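Predicting holo structure, zinc ion bound.
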Amino acid sequence: MAVIAGTGSIAAQAPLTVGGITARPGEKRSGFIEIPAARDSASRIPVTVVRGATAGPVLALIAGTHGSEVAPIVALQRVRAALDPAAMRGTVILVHVANMPSFLGRTIYYSPVDRKNLNRVYPGKRDGTVSERIAFAITNDVIARADYVVDMHAGDGNESLRPYTYWSPLGLDARTDSLARELALAWGHDHIVIDRDRPTDPEQSLYTQNTAHLRRKPSVTTETGYLGLPVEEMIQGNVSGAFRVIRYLGILAGPVETVRHAVWLSRTEVLRSPGTGVWHPRVERGHTVQEGALLGVLTDFFGDVQAEVRAPFTGEVL
Ligand SMILES: [Zn+2]
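Done. Tokens:
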């Protein structure tokens, strides 16, 4: 690392434009990235750019990739209000609601317009369906401008999640992998899922996080919240995670906190329903279970048990 002294040490910086929203040094500007209608309806992405008075890293915080995951959306409103650009070194880009069709349509995972999952269509297409056009705009207007990206999720309307973070070391670039690990520890969740199975082709990156990661921008996906609810504790968890990362990157001065004893989860499995019917869980988020423990039963629509679902290995219910 070079230490630069003299007049260059506090570098001025140029204005930053994100999809038509321009913030000069020391400014906080909000507006919309417009997604014009094409083969289906138009959409817009509310964005705030907070440009620090002096130069430094650019952090993008993205909420609402899945529209019913609302705790991060509420949290970014508080982050916007609390950020003081005059005190900042660097820039924070806030994407308040990435997936407006899903948010306004109250859908889980899928857009009500094109039935696609925004977090599976990256890097997007300029002339695609609305989810693909949103992904294209976030790739080219937000991720392209950022040095670090946090895609802020929560348990969707059907997901009773305990908080955790995805770290995805792909082994392609040691710096990106290692800084993403630091970001995960800075965010503050002590449970970190190691996901090595993301695609490695930047043109088929699929996920928000992976789109950044493959462009050598350290990135994590966080899960802070459950069941599509704006629970105060989870809103605060998102605000706290955002500011921990902001301080870790040196964008704001203050104590840097990092998780010291993380639980690294290298083996995870998403269990699929063995049939169609009604799910009756027998465990809660955060429970630990032995291999073979009953996790829940599937009944038909009348209440008669059709199948049992058991833990495939000993672990914790995320
Ligand atoms: Zn999600």
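The radius of gyration is 20 Å.
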